[in-house]
Amino acid sequence: MVTAGTAIVAALRDDVDRLLAAEPDVRADAWDSVHQMRVATRRLRSVLRSYRTLFEATPIAEMQHELKWLADLLGVARDAEVRAERFAALLATHAPQDEFARLATESAAPKAAGSGYVPGTTEYVRTELVDAERGRYRTAHAEILDALDHHRYHALRHRLSAWRTDPPLDADKSKQPAAEVFERILRKDRKRVQRLVYAEPAVSPTERVELLHDIRKGAKRLRYSCEGATDVLGSAAKDLGTEAKRLQTVLGDHRDAVESREAILARAAETHATGVNATIYELLADAEEIAAGEALARYPAAAAFVSG
């Protein structure tokens, strides 16, 4: 019989390895490295939360606190990176360069002093959106590097390395059969998502956006708990995790579009966009509104598995 303790140590070891393996690439600022380390950190937090009954309470609470610190730090850089990529793609797709250049020329808009670009053109908006986010990313990445050299991260890394083989397991609960414990945990995580999905039709439009975000987070937690249980429960956990990932992805697409639209409108207000400039911002905001609607249209099918 495989015990729950043995099984969770194996799952935990894989998650710790993912996190630690990402550090050198983050230091080198390799492509997608911040994203990979952030995902590994969130995944580890999620597994510890779902399977927390198998561990001693105090060490887990302390570890969760430190992992949240690291995830939040990585999140600032990653969010800026995502916005820069998304804004660049939106401009390439929805801002017809030649037309805006013509309109800007006809309006005889002067160049901003020392900037080398004409206010009102796509390049002006690109600077206000894409370049600004890239600057935020560089600042946030520098803060990550400082943190990775700090004793707080060194202590976290040392503790995680020890937990690869010897985490603080609860002496009694970790001896229970892995299949029974893991099945119970997956049922609980699934019911959590189910309750949120069932509540969604009754909330107001303003509450809906945040509830959908909560459903996304619940689906992500379910996905990671399923992936941690696949070696024990086989295809049942794998298939459920696939469904949870699909729901997470759909609502992630929705959330990204909503937040991107809000950021575009906020940036337009900050820069007092007028004329052609305002038109570009409006086009991008409208495109994100459409993208959010398209993602939301896929939500009912993606959420159907919770009723099965």
UniProtKB/TrEMBL annotation:
Organism lineage string: Bacteria, Bacillati, Actinomycetota, Actinomycetes, Mycobacteriales
InterPro entries: CHAD_dom, CHAD_dom_sf
Species this chain originates from: Nocardia vinacea
Residues spanning the signal sequence: none
CHAD domain ranges (all copies): 1-308
Pfam families hit by this protein: CHAD (PF05235)
Stated name of the protein: CHAD domain-containing protein
Domain of life the protein comes from: Bacteria
